[in-house]
């Protein structure tokens, strides 16, 4: 029987989806990891025996040796993809990547739009062109993965029209950007595969992006992402493949984080340890990584919200970064709190083996 394991972030992103996905990849070595939202703005960190990789254009099973699949709900930037491919190959990771024909393709002009829009800079952006790509594809100026293998003149025409769409009028400037972009595209072997390709695998691991509280339909607008970050897209794909055995793994840190602008509860300065490997640090687009105490009412809100999209799924709660709590009593209090709210919670319990194996 085909099985789907879906990894979802319960918060504002940065909850530990990468290491949770890697944990499932280790348990299911013959599986494939599917990205079903977001794109190249992801920064999912995995460390294996001293090797570290931040997965953005490849799913978080790649360092473990699993292939990646990007669904129609994702974006791909060929230049970012190529650069990460070279990094991953040096580390011995798996760079096999299959992309749905209708995945959205990011251009240099989308990145420019994301980084220079006053609205984006005020509301928050990763500066990787994802939001601009999704917005553009709602109109007439679409660009899909299938277009990367279309006749070259057709692709050229589409790229030029996208440049004009954003107000680029300097022909030499457009030509320079397009020439470099096409040069990179030609260096990549494009595996364009619809969902029937996934029939080759008994276990599918779905890796989410950002968190439920940044969902475009459910987050606090305007500080949201341009994606459905609930299990909605993953369940949609499972239904197409007629998969009924579905398990969801909801990830949260042992404290709250938010990278950039927007509302978050219980914000305060936390003294954390062992976070020298923190991937999410200050950058000019998202600004500071902010911290706070967990809000259990908000966690329950996110859990109940997602259950509306995956009512028949089995559910697991994964708490990450427990080793970063500064004081022993904070760890004990966290364990007590989770016991009282969710029942039978223990880092050593069978249901929460991921916690014991990864973080203690």
From TrEMBL:
Major place of residence: cytoplasm
Name of the protein in its database record: Adenylosuccinate synthetase
Q: Which family does it belong to?
A: Belongs to the adenylosuccinate synthetase family.
Report quaternary structure and partners: Homodimer.
Give me the Gene Ontology terms describing cellular component: cytoplasm
Provide the species name: Flavobacterium hydrophilum
- Active site (record annotation): 14 (proton acceptor), 44 (proton donor)
Instruction: List the HAMAP family hit by this protein, alphabetically.
Output: Adenylosucc_synth
Q: Which domain of life is it from?
A: Bacteria
What does the UniProt cofactor note say?
A: Binds 1 Mg(2+) ion per subunit.
Catalytic reactions on record: IMP + L-aspartate + GTP = N(6)-(1,2-dicarboxyethyl)-AMP + GDP + phosphate + 2 H(+)
Explain the purpose of this protein.
Plays an important role in the de novo pathway of purine nucleotide biosynthesis. Catalyzes the first committed step in the biosynthesis of AMP from IMP.
Q: Which cofactors, by name?
A: Mg(2+)
Q: What is its EC number?
A: 6.3.4.4
Q: Which UniProt keywords apply?
A: Cytoplasm, GTP-binding, Ligase, Magnesium, Metal-binding, Nucleotide-binding, Purine biosynthesis
Q: What class of enzyme is it?
A: ligase
Look up the record and name the pathway of this protein: Purine metabolism; AMP biosynthesis via de novo pathway; AMP from IMP: step 1/2
Amino-acid positions noted as binding IMP in the UniProt annotation, renumbered to this chain = 14-17, 210, 225, 287
Q: Which SUPFAM superfamilies match?
A: P-loop containing nucleoside triphosphate hydrolases
**Which Gene Ontology BP terms does the record give?**
'de novo' AMP biosynthetic process; IMP metabolic process
MF terms (GO), sorted A to Z:
adenylosuccinate synthase activity; GTP binding; magnesium ion binding
**Where can this protein be found?**
Cytoplasm
For this protein, the record's Pfam families field holds:
Adenylsucc_synt
**Keyword Metal-binding set for record:** yes
Chain residues that bind GTP? 13-19, 321-323
Q: Where does Mg(2+) bind?
A: 14
